Amino acid sequence: MSAPTKHVRLESLGPARVPETLVVHEIYASVQGESTFVGVPCAFVRLTGCNLRCTWCDTTQAFKGGTRMPRSEAVARALAFDTPLVEVTGGEPLLQPGALPLLNELADAGRTVLLETSGERDISGVDPRVHRIVDLKAPGSGESHRIRWSNVEHLGPRDEVKLVLADRADYEWARDVIARHRLHERAGAVLVSPVFGSLAAQDLVAWVLADKLPVRFQLQLHKVVWGEHTQGV
Questions:
Q1: Nearest-CA neighbor of 92 among 123, 130, 70?
Q2: CA distance 198 to 208
Q3: From CA 55, how far away is CA 43, in angstroms rounded?
Q4: At residue 156, does pLDDT exceed 50?
Q5: 99 sits in which H/E element
Q6: If you count Cβ atoms within 10 Å of the first and of the last residue's Cβ in the chain, which end, N or C, has fewer?
Q7: For 200-211, how does the pLDDT look when each residue is reduced to its tens digit (9 = 90+)?
């Protein structure tokens, strides 16, 4: 039987600093809302805490709080949904040391494992079986200065780069970054999406087509299905 859980504040993690435990905001099943796996049934493990404050963040509820639990319990809960995909997300999951062994164990269980990360944390230690979705923050986020550009060197064909764009200036920044770093040659996919409610999807599609940008356009499917503010979906 797993150890009992209790609610804690992230500021007082204590034992959650060691890999055997995690502070988890929520674990739930849905369909994948973004990435090249969009629409596939997926179990989500959302870890608490983020060190960035993007202007358009839609998961501020995961900044604090959460439940401390043994890593084995988080694995068991995610696998119990019996979905082909499991995604570890946040917040910023790589802030917690237990995230790396969590990813390993989910991959050991035979699942296709996704990691969604802000691009500010070092991704080089992530299990090579994991599909790393690296969110490079455009200037409109207010956090583009936090990008760890050395992560680009670690990208491979299993990985995806995500660019969330708020306006034309963000788009032009993204276009330059894709070309300068040859992101479409390093990663398996480069994903561009509009900030929900800020940039018209039609405009972004028109710009991508006009520039023949080597990207995959995406929307946040979960917001289309359940609405902008629904959590746990």
A1: 123
A2: 17
A3: 27
A4: yes
A5: helix 99-108
A6: N
A7: 999 999 999 999
